[in-house]
Design brief:
Elements lengths: L2 H22 L15 H29 L3 H33 L21 H4 L2 H23 L1
Helix pairs in contact: 1-2, 2-5, 3-5
């Protein structure tokens, strides 16, 4: 295995670890009161280069995999499966967000909500944007884009 692949896998795993940390460590649970501000935003900024590198390597690997596939039917099957997984993940993300909003007592415009006047991006809602579902969805979308870029260049 080439060193670049090992490096790519390590970067993607570090990116997954970053998503995990933001979701589970730097997001305040709805039943806890926090007055310290959004510490997760610091981690998001620090890990952004790793997230971007993870997407880059996913794109490069998808291009290489797609380029080496000779049969169109297999490429179509992979893209179809990726789209189905994306649709399922969108439903899971929407369900996750709805459950979080209910746990928080409502939206930022609801006076009874824990996030009243905080806006949508705060220490209670980091996990809406950084969780396992969004990690998988963004990497699958990057994978689809990588595959489609090869199909376009092969035409």
């Amino acid at each position: 295995m080439k060193k670049i692949y090992i490096f790519g896998v390590i970067v993607i795993l570090l990116s997954l670890l970053g998503f995990y940390l933001i979701e589970n460590i730097f997001t305040i649970k709805p039943n806890v009161t926090s007055g310290n501000g959004n510490l997760g935003i610091l981690i998001i900024f620090l890990l952004s280069p790793i997230f971007i590198a993870g997407y880059f390597f996913t794109y490069k690997m998808a291009r290489e995999i797609s380029y080496n596939i000779k049969k169109k039917i297999i490429r179509v099957f992979i893209l179809s499966l990726s789209l189905i997984c994306s649709i399922i993940l969108v439903f899971l993300i929407v369900n996750y967000i709805n459950e979080l909003i209910i746990a928080l007592g409502g939206t930022p415009s609801n006076p009874d909500s824990r996030i009243y006047r905080f806006g949508w991006f705060n220490q209670y809602t980091n996990s809406m944007y950084f969780n396992l579902f969004t990690f998988l969805l963004t990497h699958i979308i990057t994978f689809i884009i990588g595959n489609l870029s090869v199909i376009k260049t092969k035409l």
